[in-house]
Amino acid sequence: MTAVLLSSLVVCWAVVFHVLGWTALYRESGGACGGSDCPRGLPTVLLLAFAFSFAGTLALSKALAVAGLRRGIAVAVVVGGVLAGLLPGLYGYQWIRGEQVRIASPLKGPKRLGIAWRAPQDRPATVKGLRGWSTGDTVVRVRTDGLSAYAVKDGAERWTVTAPVRASVCAQSAHPAKGVGLVAYGRHNKPCTTLAAVRLADGATLWKRTLKGEGIGKGIALGGGTAVSVEDGAVRGRSAGTGAEQWKRPVAERCRVLSVGASPARTLAVEECAAAKTDGLVTARLLALDTRTGEEQWVTKLPVESAGTAHVYSVAPAVIGYQETDERGVRAVLAFDERGQSRAAVPLSGRSGDLDIRLSPEDLKAEGPFVSGDTLVAAVQKPGDIVPQYVAGFSVRDGRELWRTKKLGHIGALALRGDGRVAAVTVGWPRSDVHVVDPGAKGAVSKATLGKEAPVSIDAEMLAVRDGYVVVNRYTDGEPPAFSLR
């Protein structure tokens, strides 16, 4: 009788592993996977399912033949063994799968999402979307011809701001600050010479300034109550509320600013300087200023010898992207400590894949990378793939890859949530999913599914808002300018 009971346990484990394993394979990988792309522990689960099936069936048939039990007793013993094996089988499955499975309900499918609202199509159809902003219960989509604000709850248009006659939006701050967004306007084939601050609660233009010289350089930024811009050979700080100039930091001769970023306490500027001699080397440095006063905090020389492009991804900690024109030069995301000392370099392209990140507003890349704690989080394209399908975390202390998710599908956009986690929306047939990645838990992923393909364009940005997300499509070809997922 003991042999019958034990073999019934093994049969139970076979059933549990088959049901949970094949369900997980369909739910997490669309029904198929291979090698390192398989979800954690799933190949082991399925192999054990077949092993338990073979061993358990063979052992049970032999045990019943040897025991010679009456039919009623045999059925009772088998049923008892199966019931006794359920809990150990369940916990064994969860132990093999690790953190990806929740004890409460391993069979429970992912959370369902829906499209709560869609903004009307752009009119005129020739306009192009730029970045989106989120502030409170409002999202703002900046377009070449102005700004449009939508209510997070239902998508109702709250206000619009139209660009000046014959002018287009030519620059904007990456983020709003204290309910204010910063934009710049310029005429066709003319410099970007009009700087303006817009109150996002009602669309009121707080101030406008006509700039000197060649107008806005590479970027504008908001840090607390200060508007930072590169103009007329200097980095300038203005009151975000009134536009009054508060400080000015001249750019050195033969130098130009490639990118700026700001927080309430610090402004970062990446400066590139032309060679003093015809056969000399280009130099570059990262400059940290006090956002409130313009006072220099530190300066760090960058290991650059040729012209390039740069982008400030994070101010605290200081993280920038740099790409030299020299193919053997610096092409990496660089991280620095609080004193400006170099800490880490994550190559844009390496043996394990390419970072899918923007180095300019024109790049058709996923938004990011984002910094969460001491982790740099970015979409990654594996060698041989043509689209990014993974999210990976890298240490900003030494550049090591700390973790990488399983294959998620074609990542259309990333968003940094208020809780420090990063959300990735996948695109393409047959459905779109939102994967929430937790950098603090070694990249553990939770998933919500839309059940159908989301209208994400080839150039999109996702904003984390209360109770969900708003996707802002910069380029539209039938897709809505913005839509809500929750």
TrEMBL record:
Which positions fall inside the Pyrrolo-quinoline quinone repeat domain?
Answer: 147-303
Q: Does the keyword Translocase apply?
A: no
Which residues span the membrane? 45-65, 72-93
Q: Which UniProt keywords apply?
A: Membrane, Transmembrane, Transmembrane helix
Q: Which Gene3D superfamilies match?
A: YVTN repeat-like/Quinoprotein amine dehydrogenase
The name on file for this protein is: Pyrrolo-quinoline quinone repeat domain-containing protein
Native organism: Streptomyces chryseus
